[in-house]
Design a protein that fits this description.
Radius of gyration: 26 Å
Structural class: alpha+beta
Largest sheet: 6 strands, mixed
Distance between the termini: 17 Å
Shape: globular
Number of strands: 15
Helix content: 40-55%
Oligomer: single chain
Number of helices: 19
């Protein structure tokens, strides 16, 4: 699909036209999916979808994540009681998800939107009590056709707050927004445009079956709530459980963008010729160590990101109640690390393409802006890392170093053990800071702890990525492939260690001679890998048809600008 004309770059579109195109592509995608309901229930297919569409349409990535994961996924995860989902599976109604509010983002558990049980009708009145309680920033405009939403609201029964639940709520039809629904379009933001809006409800009546129910919360016909969870916060987190899969979707989309940026930048580096050392000599940009070393650093990181993401999706798909909290925390840490690294990679790749990288037609200039949305969506990265850090200071046992004796800096187990020591060092520092902080000031105690705790989380993320990388490399059956992956993993670990040589030296885990030889070891590893850059990006397997439409990815660094612009053909996608 992404190789075809429907997904080709379309110049000159207004923000509204680009949003409309993303909805058109969502329908084309939905027509291709054989079973949208089953698709929404499959973590592997959801993640794979985002990896492929991320590089070609950031707006579509957002819409697909909301419709398939947050909306349809929430319906699938709750008892449907015979609920007819055909209108959503066929996209007669596009689904959206309304949780955060204008004044309640990271503290969404304090939301104000209410759904009041009406004992006379048995239904609910959905209401926005204050301007700050408007839902922010779902795609609820009329662009893209009729829409329905899963809305998070406080269930009020006889003036008693029973906690936050989800309610299936129709928003609009062919004639516009429904009574009791007010939508105000938000200003244009960075990245590929989506019809984000503020949405409020004025005592909108919903039928009894609008309440999404499962074991974590059921309301009987007498208005009595039963739950297998002990408190309102746990019920709320279980209601919005799809946000965890959303973290994996967001990181998958940015991961695909990072791999696309690398593919474009590496291909450009091999086709762009510059002056050599001899008179009249022309050499590829990729020949320069100052150029290819930066690309290889980001390539090694992208492989580590990929293998980590595969591992975490596997764990999420197989998680049980016993390891739910651990897997959810790992998904949050992974999302933060991957999306932050994706931004670093796409920025580096854009710069390595020079001025050519600034043209949207070259497929790389807008990726960083689209990644910004992923960094914030489904939980702002810093906030979810702070939460993970607070849980891991004492509630996590650092991974033990490799039991084998220390080797040189080309030895993978030794490098892995050094990174494990980095995690232990920062956890120890965080624990010490928390114990020694002001006992009468909880916020003050955390403030002196948080920086060390966040460094611990960062080291943990990178160690998990390194372990996933080595496991994948060890599985390779072809000796050449295994050797190449081990070499690339070595480069990844060397870069991680380089930033912590002072700590490791101070704690006796590195010798002064090892610190002195680290730059040479890095340079030797880069030199060995430089001839393999094209092999490494070819393994990302982007379709040849897609790459051929990107000028600097197909050897067209100069000629495409010199040619007379052809009038763009209309997209074959229909409303």
């Amino acid at each position: 699909m992404i190789s075809g004309r429907a997904f080709a770059f379309r110049p000159g579109l207004s923000p509204t036209e680009r949003t409309t195109l993303s909805y058109d592509r969502l329908r084309l995608l939905n027509d291709t999916v054989d079973d949208p309901i089953g698709f929404a229930a499959d973590p592997h297919r959801l993640a794979a979808l985002h990896e492929w569409i991320g590089p070609v349409d950031g707006g579509l990535t957002t819409l697909a994540s909301i419709h398939y994961n947050l909306f349809l996924g929430s319906l699938v995860d709750h008892d449907d009681a015979g609920r007819d989902l055909s209108a959503f599976a066929s996209l007669q109604h596009t689904g959206t998800f309304l949780c955060t509010e204008l004044e309640h983002g990271n503290d969404v558990a304090a939301m104000e939107t209410v759904a009041v049980l009406d004992r006379t009708s048995g239904g609910f009145h959905l209401h926005t009590p204050t301007p700050g309680a408007q839902k922010f920033m779902p795609n609820t405009s009329l662009t893209g056709g009729p829409k329905s939403a899963v809305v998070a609201a406080r269930l009020i029964v006889d003036d008693n707050d029973q906690g936050i639940f989800l309610f299936l709520t129709p928003l609009s039809d062919e004639n516009g927004h429904l009574p009791g629904v007010t939508v105000r379009r938000l200003p244009e933001r960075t990245g590929t445009p989506v019809d984000h809006a503020l949405t409020a409800f004025e005592h909108k009546w919903l039928p009894r079956e609008a309440l999404l129910q499962a074991d974590h919360g059921r309301l009987d016909h007498d208005g009595m709530l039963t739950s297998n969870l002990g408190n309102r916060r746990k019920r709320f987190l279980r209601s919005i459980n799809r946000v965890t899969m959303g973290k994996l979707c967001m990181s998958a989309g940015t991961l695909g963008m990072a791999r696309a940026a690398l593919t474009i930048a590496v291909r450009h580096a091999h086709s762009r010729l510059i002056a050599g050392t001899g008179t009249g000599e022309r050499i590829a940009l990729a020949a320069h160590r100052s150029h290819h070393s930066r690309l290889l650093d980001t390539l090694a990181t992208a492989y580590a990101m990929t293998f980590l993401h595969r591992t975490v999706v596997d764990r999420f798909a197989a998680h049980t109640e016993e390891d739910r909290e651990e897997v959810e925390r790992l998904a949050a840490i992974t999302k933060g690390w991957i999306t932050w690294q994706a931004r670093r990679i796409t920025t580096e790749c854009r710069e390595r393409c020079g001025a050519q990288g600034l043209f949207p037609a070259n497929g790389i200039s807008e990726l960083s802006a689209n990644i910004e949305g992923g960094i914030t969506a489904e939980g702002d990265n810093l906030v979810i890392w702070v939460k993970a850090a607070s849980e891991m200071v004492f509630g996590h046992r650092s991974a033990p170093p490799d039991a084998r004796p220390p080797g040189d800096l080309s030895d993978l187990p030794h490098l892995r053990g050094l990174l494990a020591q980095v995690e232990t060092i920062w956890q120890t520092r965080a624990r010490t800071a928390l114990r020694e902080g002001p006992s009468d000031d909880p916020l003050g105690r955390w403030n002196v702890t948080s920086e060390a705790a966040l460094e611990m989380v960062s080291a943990h993320a990178r160690l998990q990525a390194a372990d996933a990388f080595t496991t994948a490399a060890d599985r390779a059956t072809a000796p050449g492939t295994r050797a190449l992956l081990h070499s690339l993993c070595r480069l990844f670990l060397l870069h991680q260690i380089r930033n912590h040589t002072g700590d490791l030296l101070a704690e006796g885990h590195l010798t002064p001679d090892q610190v002195r030889t680290l730059p040479k070891t890095l340079d030797t590893t880069v030199a060995d890998l430089a001839p393999q850059m094209m092999t490494l990006v070819d393994a990302f397997d982007f379709p040849a048809e897609m790459l051929s439409a990107i000028p600097i990815a197909s050897g067209g660094s100069i000629s495409w600008l010199a040619e007379e612009e052809e009038t763009p053909k209309p997209s074959p996608v229909q409303h």
